[in-house]
Amino acid sequence: MVSIRKIILWFFVAIVDALLGWATITLFVNDSYGLAVIVIVLMVFIDYALINPKAYPYKYMVPAVIFLFILTIYPIYYTVELAFENYATGYLWSQKQAINIMLNEIVTKPNPKFFNYSVYTLYKDYKPTRNFLILLKNSKDELYIATQPVKSGKYETSQFKVLNDGKVTINGINYALIRSLKNPSKIIAISVNGRIYNYFYSPSDSETLPNLRFFNVNYSSILSNTEFVNPQMGTFFFTTTYGFSKIVSAQHKYALAVRMVTENSKSVEKTVLVNTITHQIVQNHDSAFWDVNPKTGNETYIMGYYKFVGFNNFKRLLTDPRVTGPFFSVFLWTFEWAALSVFFTFIVGLTFALILNNKEMRFRFIYRTLLIIPWAIPAFISVIVWRIGFFNVSYGIINRIFLEQWLHLPALNWLGDPLLAKIALLIVNTWLGFPYMMVISLGALQSIPGELYEAASIDGASKWYSFKRITFPLLMTPLAPLLIASFAFNFNNFNVIYLLTGGNPPIPNAVTPAGATDILLSYTYKLAFAGTTGRDYSLAAAISILIFLIIASISAVNFKLSGSFEEVNR
Amino acid sequence: MKRRIHPVRHVVMIAVLIVILFPLLWIFTTSIRRDNAAISPELFSNQITWQNYKDLLFPTKNVPALYNQLVNIYNLGKPYNNMSRKEIQKLLNNDFKSYNDYFKETEKLSDNISSNASWIVINFLPKAKNFAVNDVKNNSIEDMTYVSTVNFYLSRKFKTLSDNYKIAGLKDILVSMKKATPNTYSLDLVGSYFPNILKTRKTFRTMMERTAVKIHATVKEVLNLLRTVNNPTAKTLVEAYQKTYNSLKNGTFTYSKWFAPVYLKGINLNTNKLSGIVSADVFSKLQKVKTNTFEAIGKVHVAESNYINALNTATSKVEDARNDLLNTLESSLTALNDEYANLDSKIKDLNSDFSNYHLAMSNDASQISIFANNIISTSRALEDTVLIMKDALKKFKPTTSDTGSFVDVSPQLKYIKMWLSLSTKYPNFNAITKSIKRIMTNLEYIQSNEAFMASHSNLDAMMNAKGALPLILLKLKSGIEQSLIALQNYDSLAQKYAEISEKIPQLKSKMSNISSQMTLLQNKVDAIRSKISLASLHFKTNVVFKRLSDMQKKLNTYDDAGIFLATLNSYYSTLQNSNLYPSLPSMPKSSRYDRFYETQKLDDTMVLSIKTISTMKKINRQYADYLNTLKRRTPSYLEMKFLGIPFSINELSTINVLYHDQYVTNISPNLSIISRKTSDMMGKGDFGAINGRLNSINNSSFNLRQIWMVKYLPPFLRWVLNSVIVALSAAVITVFLSALMAYPFSRMRFLGRKYGLMGILLIQMFPLMMAMVALYLLLNFIGKFFPPLGLDSLGGLAFLYIGGGIAFDTWLIKGFFDTISTSLEEAAMVDGATRFQTFWKVVIPLSVPILAVVTILAFVGNFGDYILASIVMTSVDKYTLAVGLQSFSTSAYQTNWGLLSTAALLGAIPILILFLSLQKFIVGGLTQGSVKG
Questions:
Q1: Over the stretch B400-432, which tens digit does the pLDDT of each residue have?
Q2: In chain B, pLDDT over 70 holds for what percent of residues?
Q3: Which H or E run includes B923?
Q4: To pair with B664 at 20 to 30 A between CA atoms, which of A20, A339, B79, B152?
Q5: Minimal-distance CA residue of chain A relative to B765
Q6: Is residue B372 domain-shared with residue B459, that is, in the same domain?
């Protein structure tokens, strides 16, 4: 019995290890070393937990730890890594990938030869299939047959041969043209060992236009990656210069070659990238590859790649004036926003709590339930309603009905003016957040013993005095950690900011997409995903780390206050 | 200690609650509004519909949507490209069936509208019109009083005017008389000043009447003559005579404009044409009639010309009077104006010169300062050289016997003197001037001691100096010489500059002088003009008053009332535009005639409804016809399509054209007008009797539009479903995994427990969204190998939520497990249960309620997430509700508040109910303040 169980266990472990091992190898192949290391650590942990009988408690944790490692620890690690790289628009490839891309680049030869082409396809059940042929025709009206492209390495290759008297044999397969009887210049089909391929598409024939969609979906991706080879005529490609209307004699723009290079004032032989047109060595500096013009010596940018840049991103945040300006205004507003949000929600919430805390008050449960509603509606819904229905400049009812129609005041540009946008945000956030403050204040108020008030009133203390001296101090003890947590929450309250103002209005003259009401998190989001001039993932990651440090220190204070650290030790 | 709660507290609470919950109230009322809330001036509307809810929850295809589907089916687009013929035929039949239902519905609604509208036109409007006329009759008394007051007031003022003004004020009336047939009131008025007009008009009138009688006879005669002739020409001829007669009888005769060119020519031409057709006898008679008629008309023409001449004479007299009053003043005003403009342009020129000079001067100055750098450095060299020389010569005394020349510094000195003579004027060159003065002293020293130096030139120092000096001097010379040019230039510019700056104030004072003269003149002119316009207004009021009071006496029909009000309103607007208006008593309110205007609106709307609906019916029938044809031909069309033969289906394009040309451009706007106006009128008290019918018209037109208009509905249900799938699956899995993980932390002691807990505490602090870049790239990477967990997939998003929730939920559940007593587990273990069994069979059942609550809270949290969902989901049908609603609210739907608020409410209510029912737990502090807030 025990042995069977053990066998099953070992079998299971073997499967898991095989899977994770495969994942590790795949990750290494894809240059994701960080994730690979994480997977290895995970594998060791799982093996240990499953095999070692002493590791019994760890068995419970295995599934959760898998998620934690992949979705929390790895992203944190990756964010840190990103923050020290220059991963941004223009630098989205690793050096290896960039070289591969360059090696794949195809350029038309000087004085290129052309072929016009038409596609012939094999029909099955009256529907075109993925079997097709290409008929090529050059400027002298000579006809060539190109075979169906076959995958070979990274490319598809297709051989083509000139037709002799309408017939040709390639790789032992016989191809023969079938011409229209009415109009012999039209080739309506090609017979391939007796199977008939029908005329399907040609870019110069508008009658076949209805088939273009099928062609685009099924053939063009293959054709755009096809090398057409003929021993006498060289290689041909579809190049971007002519769209998809012709195939052109072309070549790879860059190739690897061994050249003498001066390195540390010594001449060494090295494999380098060479531009096949200018025969110049491709330069590699400043995290990018550069073409050299042989006449002038000028360098032109080809493509960038990302690499480790140390503290550059943090330096940029603190010293580059174009980044620093908007960053500091965002930074400041984030603090203002969080502090004012907590302040207003707490004031309003506490007021309601004090009113509702009276046991003699009738309907207090109903009042409380109704007052919780703003908190209970998903924030994204209420914020959108506030934006569209209330604060919109031309349609919103605050401007259109309350201000203009009822009070005869000029309309306010609520979401377009920096100050008004901030006010609007605080109004909405107070509306959304006061019920939470009310609820926690009510809880805390109920825990204050009534005898204290009785004693105070016997001593002749006024209501205000007893609030100041009894209620408030006793409230703050349980509420302080919650207020700090609320501060931390609002510090990252992306939903309200992004859905109400989108961080707008934009800060004038900023190079990064920063707005007057952006908080750090929404600014990060914009940097990474919404930049109109380009995405700067690494700068975003650097800011993420700053946010983390701030939140972590706030939370540390909070844990100290709420005793979470003691709970760990219990 | 019990204290009663004052009721005021409840009142305040309720008021505050209304304010706080107002957005919710607004969402609800907006979601059931029928009109477009985004542009309506009302905050709430009494026009209610549940259409938005139907559209979002049970979307059905209306006519244009069906059309789009048909087009797609016939083109065999996705997803129809993989269907069999049978399936497609079945789909089409369904579509045709729903089409038929819509056609029937349209017919029904149209009938309803037109029957109601006709009922109102036939049974209600006549009465309403009667009421409205009576209303106008009663109310017009007040207007007449008002106009007569104004008339009295104006005529009193008018009497104080001298004759010239009075006559000049006649201009407007004379112009209006020339334009159209004059009314008697204007004639009388003008006649009192220019009796000749009255006289000639009278002659003209009698001539017209007399001739009319004559031509009446002529018409009869011609008819008689041509009775037997059945020819279009004859008919036209008789018609021409008849028209001639009519125009004379009505007094609308105007020879020059169209009478002569059209009618007379017609008579002449047609008579000549008849020459071969009728007998000679008749023809000669016709010719005679024609000659007689022409003669008679000729006389009328003469009378008319006399009248027009009289009018022209009067007009020129009026013009003269006006010119007498204003001409000289106006011309001198123009002259002054010209002079003013002239001066203004001069000053502008000077100002531009001024700034040009300024620019040139600053250029010169900067040039000088460039040279100055050069000069100053050279001057130091010079000074040093001179110092060396002085040093060398210290031991010697100049004697009179010293002779010879050392160096010639006179050219430099010449330039320097010229330089200094200019530069001392300008304090901004002080620095250079100072150093140049120093150069001068040095040079003067050399010059004065030249002989002394020359005699000691054999000294080493002197030899050196002699070698160095020429170079220094050369440099100095070129520097000073060249900068001198700039300086001279600067000097001349400065003089000009000073001249101009003197001139400008002179010109300006001249200008202000002129402008004050102009104001004076303008005031005079304005005074005269206002007097003339007083006279003019007086005349107008006079005429209008008489006209209106006549009309008011005969005010009987609805049309009379309309004309009366139109005249009155046009007079009132003249009055309001006149500059005398502020001094007049205020007008009676126009709202007194609301009943009439409302009736008019009702009338217009009903007429529009009947017209629109008849077109609508026509279109409906045509559409159905085309569709029937299509249905009949469908099998053959499908046959061809399946063979892959490309062709376009004629019926579909015809239908498209019909829809766009007729419905979109024509009916749709009319229907919305009808809808709006009927809903406006429904509230009005006068139409209480037809409220039901108006409501029915309103309903039907709204429903018609729902059937026919193009709607763009968001895939709302899809979004909600996505949200629920992702949020719920993530919440369940998260809580399950967290409970598993929390158990050993709570019950067991093992290596790494403390640091594990610390780690979890640390990790749950790190909001997942901060690693959004990493998560995005991670999903992108995973998606390459396993698409269901990649970007733009529900699985991928749920994956992220699970990862983000585990740490927090583990911490939460661990805290709860700690509160469960271990005695039950111990008992179970004693009974032989394994550790896992105690967990699974004891701990979990005990904590089911709390796990459920945590699951629901996690669900609510995931449901409300926007940031991660917006990063992961890119295609519209994968959106979660948060992303969908946001995209929906920023696109063209921004003003479609009905749909937006409905979607908002439908999305909010389930969560609201969940949340409120969990109040107990939330208030209990379970959430530890991190769920929301």
A1: 777 777 778 888 888 888 888 888 888 878 878
A2: 96
A3: helix B919-923
A4: B79
A5: A552
A6: yes
* Number of separate domains in chain B: 4
Chain B interface disruption, residue of A31, A35, A61, most B CBs within 10 A: A61
CA distance A361 to chain B (A): 6
Going by C-beta distance under 8 Å and a sequence separation of 6 or more, which residues neighbour residue B226? B234, B237, B238, B274, B278, B282
Q: How far apart are the first and last CA of chain A?
A: 39
Contact A378 B778 (CB under 8 A): no
The answer for A 414-453 residues in CB contact with B (under 8 A) is: 431, 433, 436-437, 439-440, 442-443
Identify the CATH number of the domain in which residue B725 sits. 1.10.3720.10
B22 belongs to a structural domain: no
The ipTM (two decimal places) reads 0.80
Nearest-angstrom CA–CA distance, A138 and A120: 17
Shortest CA gap A210–chain B (Å)? 7
Residue B105 has pLDDT above 90, yes or no: yes
Q: C-alpha angle B532/B533/B535, rounded to 5°?
A: 65
For residue A431, the one-letter residue type is W
* Cβ neighbours of residue A100 closer than 8 Å, sequence gap 6 or more: none
Q: Which of A63, A360, A388 lies nearest to residue B894, judging by beta carbons?
A: A388
Q: Which residue of B has its CA nearest to A552?
A: B765
On chain B, the residues whose CB falls within 8 A of the CB of A67 are 737, 802-803, 806
Residues 6+ apart with CB under 8 A from B763: A68, A72, A73, A76, B807
Same domain for B494 and B373:
yes
Distances B723 to A475, B782, B905 between C-alpha atoms, Å: 38, 22, 15
In a domain? residue B137 = no
In which residue are the tokens 């969990």 written? B918
Say whether pLDDT at B357 is over 90: no
Most distant CA atoms of chain B, gap in Å: 152
Backbone angles phi, psi at A409, to 5 degrees: -105, 160
Lateral strand order in the sheet of A299-304: A283-285, A288-292, A299-304
Nearest to A37 by CA among A91, A81, A98: A81
**Does residue A44 register a pLDDT over 80?**
yes
Which chain A residue is nearest to residue B733, measuring alpha carbons? A64
State which residues form the domain around B479: 353-524
Confidence (pLDDT) at B258: 59
Residue A140 token pair: 């002298």
pLDDT tens readout for residues A79-115? 888 899 988 888 888 888 888 888 888 887 777 788 8
Task: State the helix-helix crossing angle for B232-250 and B195-225, rounded to 10 degrees.
Answer: 150
- Which residues contact residue B430 at a Cβ distance below 8 angstroms, ignoring those fewer than 6 apart? none
Same domain, B312 and B440: no
Give domain status of residue B421, yes or no: yes
Domains (range + CATH), chain A: 2-83 (1.20.58), 110-251 (2.40.430.10), 254-304 (no CATH), 320-569 (1.10.3720.10)
**Domain membership flag for residue B690:** yes
Residues B789 and B838 in one domain: yes
pLDDT at B685: 66
Q: Which of residues B325, B343, B361 is at a domain's end?
A: B343
- How far apart (Å, rounded) are the C-alpha atoms in residues B569 and B320? 32
Which of B678, B708, B738 is at the close of a domain? B708
| B700 and B746 belong to one structural domain | no
pLDDT recorded at residue B923: 61
Distance to chain B for A80, nearest Cα, Å: 9
Residues B363, B508, single domain; the answer is yes
**Same domain? B265 vs B308:** yes
Sequence-distant (≥ 6) Cβ neighbours of residue B441 within 8 angstroms: none
pLDDT tens, position by position, B588-597 = 887 778 888 8
- Residue B709 confidence (pLDDT) above 50: yes
pLDDT number for residue B924: 56
